[in-house]
Amino acid sequence: MSCRPSDISLFNKIINVFYFLIRIESEDSENEASLGNVIRVVIRPAGHSGKAKKGHLCFDASFETGNLGRVQLISQYEYDLFVRPDSSNPRIRLWFNFTVDNTKPDQRVIFNVVNFSKRWNCFREGATPLVRSSSRPHWQRMPRNTVFYHSSPFHDNNYILSMCFNFDKEEDLYQFAFCYPYSYSRCQAHLDNLERRKLPHFNRQLLAQSIQKRRLDLVTITHPKNMVAQQGNKVHVVVILARIHPGETPSSFVCQGIIDFLISNQPVAVLVREHLVFHIIPMVNPDGVFVGNYRCNSTGADLNRFWGKISQWLHPTLHACYSYLKSLDQDKNIELDFVLDIHAHSNLKGVFIYGNTYNDVYRYERHIVFPKLLAQNVLGFESANTVFNRDINKSNSSRRLYTIFIFN
Fold first, then answer.
1. Domain-terminating residue out of 292, 315, 347
2. Which one of 108, 246, 318, 324 is most buried, by most CB atoms within 10 A?
3. pLDDT at 44
4. Does residue 24 form part of some domain?
5. 233 contact partners, CB below 8 Å, separation of at least 6
6. pLDDT tens-digit map of 123-156
7. Positions of the chain with pLDDT under 70
8. Residue 201's domain is classified under what CATH number?
9. What is the CA radius of gyration of the chain?
10. Where are the transmembrane segments (predicted)?
């Protein structure tokens, strides 16, 4: 078989284009994956050198839960912001939390967050980012008429978040966030404070350590007589997990509220402590929370997709949670009644439940009691968002694993 010179020339051109496209895709992926948090980066106008002047904004995300990978000056007033991907997982980009200072009075800017990996998110549903400053330390939602989530022709028609903001005090440090931050340090401070009170119905212990040697805490709340299971006297146990996904910060606020209520002197709290033992793990993914990831731990693993294939070395907190739950289930003096895994959703509103379906009608009816109680007692419960299924894509999530391997 012979080829004409023109055929060979055309073939070589095709090969060159192919390799060029591969190289571009590879470079884009590497650039995205190699982003680290900005550390006191001052953005100067083109052609300016030397000491930064007032109004040359200084961006920083080098703090706990911080996330901002890169800043690009578009014009005198406009900046493109790039979210840092989750550790070792360039596909996950949603959480941001950064500070801005070195402003001048009444400096007006537009911030565009341009590289979200999830097109459908809470901003499309009308949510707005949070902002606070050193002189106004309480978080506030940005007004809706200053925030726009839109398809941008200047960014390949990708959806971007544009925020219009006026820096009104030059001496202030301003902080912007995707949602209300709840850090690992805040969780530790809360538990330290409760531990110092030496409450007889509260116990805290170290269940395990994360890859980066942070605490995986186990909190037990019950009447003192139930702290140790007695032979022949079964205790009923409720297990609560939270913050397996770092960016789902509302789950930590809910979990803290549950803890604070259960240790209180409220009549209902006193009553349930008499009859139930609560085991609470308030932060399943402390490394991911600390470094400012949205969904993954420090190795890039979405822990809620690894319950069915846990590695003691790659997922030590998951391994500890699973081992502890299994030990509770195998203890003949313990009746493991209920496991609640608290999450937050990036685009659905209200309070709702994700559960399983069963062929056993009696078991299914028991399973829907808790959602029914929520619907009757919780303002903002969204029954339309409540789902019971056996989706194969969620086969390694917590609610699937506990059903299959523990509670049969």
1. 347
2. 246
3. 93
4. no
5. 333
6. 999 999 999 999 999 999 999 999 999 999 999 9
7. 1-35, 404-408
8. 3.40.630.10
9. 25
10. none
Q: Do 125 and 202 sit in the same domain of this protein?
A: no
Same domain? 159 vs 251: no
Q: Read off the tokens for 361.
A: 């009608």
Which residues are CB-neighbours of 92 under 8 A, at least 6 positions away?
A: 85, 86, 117, 293, 294, 295, 296, 302
The strand pairing partners of 292, in sequence order, are none
Q: What are phi and psi of 18, to 5 degrees?
A: -60, -50
Q: What is the pLDDT of residues 165-199, one digit of tens each?
A: 999 999 999 999 999 999 999 999 999 999 999 99
Give the strands of the sheet with 70-73, arranged side by side: 70-73, 78-82, 107-113, 159-167, 147-151
**Residue listed under structure tokens 């739950």:** 325
The amino acid sitting at 220 is T
Residue 366 lies in a domain: no
CA distance 302 to 314: 11
Backbone φ, ψ for residue 391 (5° rounding) = -60, 125
Q: Which domain holds residue 87?
A: 35-177
> Do 169 and 215 share a structural domain?
no
Residue 142, burial from CB neighbour count under 10 angstroms (0-12, 13-18, 19+): middle
Whether residue 244 contacts residue 341, with contact meaning beta carbons closer than 8 Å, is answered with yes
Q: Do residues 137 and 243 share a domain? A: no
Q: What are phi and psi of 218, to 5 degrees?
A: -120, 120
Are 283 and 325 part of one and the same domain?
yes
Q: Are residues 237 and 96 part of one domain? A: no
DSSP category for residue 123:
G
Distance CA 81, CA 99 (A): 12
Q: Say what angle helices 250-262 and 184-196 make with each other, to 10 degrees.
A: 10
- Establish if 384 belongs to a structural domain: no
* Residues in contact with 192: Cβ distance below 8 Å, sequence separation at least 6, in sequence order: none
